[in-house]
Amino acid sequence: MIICLADVLAESELDDVRDRLNCGSFYAGSETAGWAAREVKKNMQLDAKDKDWAKLQRTVREALQCHDVFTLAASPRTISPVLFSKYEQGMGYGDHVDNAVMGGDRPFRSDLSFTIFLSAPEEYEGGELAIEDTTGVQTFKLPAGSMVLYPSTSLHRVETVTAGVRQVAVGWIQSMVREAERRQILFDLETLRRQMFSQGGKTSEFDILSKTVSNLWRMWSDL
Ligand code: NI
Fold it and tell me: What's the predicted TM-score (pTM) here?
């Protein structure tokens, strides 16, 4: 399941993040790529030693934690630190799959990847995020502040930026529910449960559905 979420970062948060990135110190992204992805990764990443790095991490993390649909869709167990990336003219990131295990000495499994667009689509040309799934390739170039959440299992790329600058925040999630199909079922059932409650209140049908959702969580979550 690929989900697009609007307004993950509010206007004021977005302005603050962009201001801090404008005077941030960046290094070549190829330095953190796996050996196979290194030759196709051409971007710049904010240095973790940058004076605003911690503040930027907090801003994005808090925005994610407050976002109801994100929490419902991802059921995060671990959220990685966010990478702030910049693609200038001629930069892109060819076909690759994200590393399955990340985090160095605090390892976690990447189940889901996300990209939060920090630049407006009209600020750059090219730079679409292209994700392969069973139906073909889907491309995304969303408004600033919006997010694409997609399975880390997929091959994906960032098309070459041909003009302007594309800035994004990217990160990875280990979900409490490992299997994508199960996450989808829980997401759908929880959505249904909320609809039932708003339409009919706490009926006996609602209670049975609540019990089922809760018990599926017991069967499928790893903590
Ligand atoms: Ni990637």
Answer: 0.93
